[in-house]
Amino acid sequence: MALKSCSYLRASNRMSSENSLQPSPTSVGSASMRSVSGEFRFVRLAEVCRTSGLSRSQIYRLEAAGQFPKRVKLGLSASAWIESEVLQWCADRIAASREVAA
Fold it and tell me: Among residues 8, 47, 63, 75, which one has the fewest Cβ atoms lying within 10 Å of its Cβ?
């Protein structure tokens, strides 16, 4: 019996997991976990810092206080944020600053 190649196994596992897992959209504020295209995009800390303009420590402080989107654990030592949640947080901050100024 011949062994199946790794790429075939990964593709078949991905297909079966895509069909069996139906993530329920949860939200942080009004941010949906799905992006406009319907797919998730994870962004790592450096990109979150650039997008939000916040320092690493400030992101962690706000996250702990429930004022910033929560990280998603990707592996033992890797985590990331869902891009649409971070962008929605930024949009909410902009809207809040405009309301105060008006």
Answer: 75
Overall average pLDDT of the 33-56 stretch? 85
Tokens at 20, concatenated: 């069996």
CB 54 within 8 A of CB 62: yes
Give the pair of three-digit tokens for residue 53.
């303009």
Q: Tell me: the pLDDT tens digits for 60-98?
A: 999 999 999 999 999 999 999 999 999 999 999 999 999
Report d(CA 27, CA 66) in Å as an integer.
13
Residue type, 82: I
Residue 45: phi, psi to the nearest 5? -55, -45
Q: Measured between alpha carbons, how far is 88 from 28 in angstroms, rounded to an integer?
A: 9
